[in-house]
Amino acid sequence: MQLQGRRVVVMGGSRGIGRSIALGFAQEGASVALCARGKDALEATRAEVAALGVTAFAAPCDLAKAADIAAFIPAAAKALGGIDVLVNNASGFGATDDEAGWAASFDVDMMAIVRASHAAEPYLAEAAPKLEGGASIINVSSISALRASKRTPPYGAIKAAVMHYTSSQAKMLAEKRIRVNAVAPGSIEFPGGSWEERRQSNPALYNATLEQIPFGRLGHPEEVADVVLFLASRRARWVTAQSIVVDGGQLIGP
Questions:
Q1: Which candidate in 31, 141, 233, 243 is catalytic?
Q2: Active site residue 233
Q3: From edge to edge, which strands make up the β-sheet containing 178-185?
Q4: Which of 77, 165, 195, 214 would give a disulfide with 249, using CB separation of 3.0 to 4.6 Å?
């Protein structure tokens, strides 16, 4: 992907999709800064990134808190010497149709993207003229944005807002040579993740979801990370304002 030397910030990068994104960039030779709430998982991922021979910076950050984001982005830029790519990956996974469910999704899935993007914009704009294809923001949405849900209405609605905001960001930032895209994963399974837990606690839901996917399995975090790396690379230099579904055909069914 010719990403060697790129300076990448991954918001919510300690586990699952975020971890795979961080490791994917590091494997390409990019420097990586990442944040998350859980200190142990965060440090473990930072060590994995550093073991690949690149600069690796990590700091705890509650992405529901504006002050934490405002502190982390400049610290990440200082550690990396700038920012070329911002990946907004974190989710509050708001499920219930009540105040708590909506707040969880809005504060993290939406406002963390807004706040991190605003904080990183000056660094991205400074880097963009020096990069073929410009600088890049990639937001992580979900296929839940594309269909109605009885089980997780706040999560789906806010992820749809993420897609809309991605298009608006792309339009606002094009003059600064910052491309903005989104990925919309389907059901992704990894150790310690929600779908692994559901396989044990709610096999009916797990199997019903599995039956929706033509390839007969849930996705892997690396399969989402590969698309994120493509969108950040020069190979996607004429791609902006897009939301790319990564679901193994889950939306179209078996």
A1: 141
A2: no
A3: 56-60, 31-36, 7-11, 85-88, 135-140, 178-185, 243-246
A4: 214
List the catalytic residue out of 117, 144, 155, 165. Answer: 155
pTM check: above 0.90: yes
Minimal CA–CA distance to 135: which of 166, 182, 180, 90? 180
What is the residue-level pLDDT of the chain in tens, covering all 254 positions?
A: 999 999 999 999 999 999 999 999 999 999 999 999 999 999 999 999 999 999 999 999 999 999 999 999 999 999 999 999 999 999 999 999 999 999 999 999 999 999 999 999 999 999 999 999 999 999 999 999 999 999 999 999 999 999 999 999 999 999 999 999 999 999 999 988 888 888 889 999 999 999 999 999 999 999 999 999 999 999 999 999 999 999 999 999 88
Provide the residue type at 145 as one letter.
Answer: A
Catalytic residue among 91, 117, 142, 233: 142
List the domains of the chain with CATH numbers. 7-246 (3.40.50.720)
- Catalytic site includes residue 159: yes
φ and ψ of 34, to 5 deg: -140, 155
Enumerate residues 6+ apart whose C-beta is below 8 A from 244.
Answer: 181, 182, 183, 184, 227, 231
The active-site residue out of 159, 165, 187, 233 is 159
